[in-house]
Amino acid sequence: MNLPLAADIEKAYEQIKPFVHQTPVLTCKSINEICGAELFFKCENLQKVGAFKYRGATNAVLSLSDEQKKHGVATHSSGNHAAALALAAKINGVKAHIVMPENAPEIKKKAVAGYGAQITFCQPTLAARESTLEEVIRQTGAVMVHPYNQWEVICGQGTASLELLQDNKDLDIIMTPVGGGGLLSGTATYVKEVFPQLKVIAGEPANADDAYQSFRKGVFQPVVNPDTIADGLRTSLGSLTFEIIKKKVDDIYLVSEESIIQAMRLIWERMKLIVEPSSAVPLAAVLENQALFKNQKIGIVITGGNVDLQNLPF
Amino acid sequence: MNLPLAADIEKAYEQIKPFVHQTPVLTCKSINEICGAELFFKCENLQKVGAFKYRGATNAVLSLSDEQKKHGVATHSSGNHAAALALAAKINGVKAHIVMPENAPEIKKKAVAGYGAQITFCQPTLAARESTLEEVIRQTGAVMVHPYNQWEVICGQGTASLELLQDNKDLDIIMTPVGGGGLLSGTATYVKEVFPQLKVIAGEPANADDAYQSFRKGVFQPVVNPDTIADGLRTSLGSLTFEIIKKKVDDIYLVSEESIIQAMRLIWERMKLIVEPSSAVPLAAVLENQALFKNQKIGIVITGGNVDLQNLPF
Questions:
Q1: Which of B52, B58, B266, B272 has the highest number of chain A CBs within 10 A, making it the mutation to test binding with A?
Q2: Taking every annotated instance into account, which residue ranges of this chain make up the domain Tryptophan synthase beta chain-like PALP (chains A, B) (predicted)?
Q3: Separation of alpha carbons B118 and A156, rounded Å
Q4: Helix crossing, A53-62 with A151-167: angle to 10°?
Q5: Scanning A91, A186, A261, B19, which has its CA 20 to 30 A from the CA of B188?
């Protein structure tokens, strides 16, 4: 399988740079003291649409040919990818067709509609989502943009770590959460080629441990009944992301739901940042394995900040 | 009365620079669209101890003579100034004596104690706070550091706008909230001398409108029964801060409690930043007076992010 290279991520970075926020890297002395390590948080919760997903979606839209742009882009998603693709398309004058389950939260429907996307509602099953998307693509000729298992998307997501390392070159470890694996595989692609001495480590909820199981066994394992508060991490790896992760990631740590909530709360209280549960998973892994991370300099990608303020876990 | 100059704020900046976070300036397209203006948020909620108060406290501690440092610093406060002074003192090896009302929230007592300060509890009245502080100073010889009505504190707070303007020189307006007036007077001191074309405008809760009344009448008016959610703005101006504000501030706008909560929620939801109600007051003023601020480039100092997550107004 042909895998992306660091040069592809550098190319993506040049391409998306005028369209994305260069998000800040923040540190927090009191969290460092609690962990016994030195953490550098790349704040993609402060990215447009509140998530790193905007990088991959923007790169996918900008990589379309002029002919493709005429037909627009399409995806099925009820989460950050839908909003990211809708806004990336709008800003570039491209139509976005989003298939959403009819039971998606009102606030997400509104956000996607607010970015001018064409929404098609469907039954809330994966089969319905996929068949509805197929039909939309058949009718419109739109180009499918997958939330993670796609070259341009992976390269876009990898630019978060590229930016993080621009000003923080002497890290020991880079950590991300892993759901579908777009961010993790993009990160590993860039980091293991340009900073080979750095370890790339993922955190994953123990209650949605498909990436951990797949990584350990070397064979793809789909997620079964993922019951985690980290709603961004309930998906299985894709064929492309798994291939990259298998080859380039150093390790994956599982974390408990309690640790995720504790880490999320620490980031809210100590750093004054609104982060969604998925974002807290790498910090949860550090907190659960303090001896292993002791005194390390760790870059952590904070993936997003889209939470329902009416429904906080604390 | 001898007033500080921009040069004093530049001196404070050089002095505190190694000790404070250079906080990011963030923008938000959707809030800009809602307001019809272009806003640049200087995020002092991401400052150490979660508030701009750390700047003034650090400048006060660093301005002590060696002899004064031996005796430590003292203040009475139940809010951000107490935590700021405690940490600034600790980092510089100086003792901090903090007088707190015995009914202060547990979390604030803990924070101040966690920074190694010596806490003296007193009855929750201003008279008790002042007499207890006097007694502490008599016993220890500590130097009083006022939360706002003090030269070094005002100069420290002014550095937030100095930093904001380093990368955003073509603003039309700078806005801060006003409580005791330390931040507003420091801002006006720097801005009106170095960028005289800029307007300096404050937002104040209508339910705690002493600065507005004092500014309008030209005569100091103390606050009476301040009943506002913006807990950082319930104090009256000081003699020094009022003198500066009277001379250098362009205007003060009053805002309703509803606007404060609405603006706070906008910042939480759209910017993914945890801000305390006081921080939202300038944005509330923009939202209440959209025609006046239309198309203006406005720098806003986000003052702090210390809120009780168990007790949110939304």
A1: B272
A2: 17-304
A3: 51
A4: 120
A5: B19
Q: Which of A158, A207, A202 is nearest to A177 (CA)?
A: A202
Tallying the residues shown for chain B, one arrives at: 314
Amino acid letter, residue A13: Y
Same domain, B181 and B298: yes
User: How many beta-carbon pairs under 8 angstroms link A with B?
Assistant: 45
> Do B284 and B197 fall within a single domain?
yes
> Beta-carbon neighbour count of residue A99 at 10 Å?
25
Calculate how close chain B gets to A54, using CA atoms only, in Å: 14
Domains identified in chain A, total number: 2
* Band (B134; pLDDT cuts 50, 70, 90): very high
Instruction: State the angle between helix axes of A239-248 and A151-167 in degrees (0 to 180), rounded to the nearest 10.
Output: 40
Query: B308: how many CB neighbours lie within 10 A of its CB?
Result: 12
Burial of A243 (0-12, 13-18, 19+ CB in 10 A): middle
Residues B168 and B44 in one domain: yes
Tell me: do A39 and A182 sit in the same domain. Answer: yes
Shared domain for B208 and B128, answered yes or no, is: no
Listed residue (B87, B103, B46) closest to B303, CA to CA: B46
Q: Which residues of B touch A274 (CB under 8 A)?
A: 268, 272-274
Is residue B189 in a domain? yes
pLDDT digits (tens, 9 = 90+) for A187-198: 999 999 999 999
Q: What is the CATH number of the domain that holds A70?
A: 3.40.50.1100
**pLDDT at residue A106, as a whole number:** 83
Q: Which of A123, A144, A165 is the last residue of a domain?
A: A144
Complex ipTM value = 0.93
CA distance B314 to B304: 18
CB contact under 8 A, A272 and B274: yes
Regarding whether A181 and A136 lie in a shared domain, the answer is no
Last residue of a domain, one of A104, A119, A144: A144
Q: Range of A194's domain?
A: 6-51+150-302
Contacts of B48 in chain A (CB under 8 A): 29
Residue of B269, B272, B310 with shortest CB distance to A273: B272
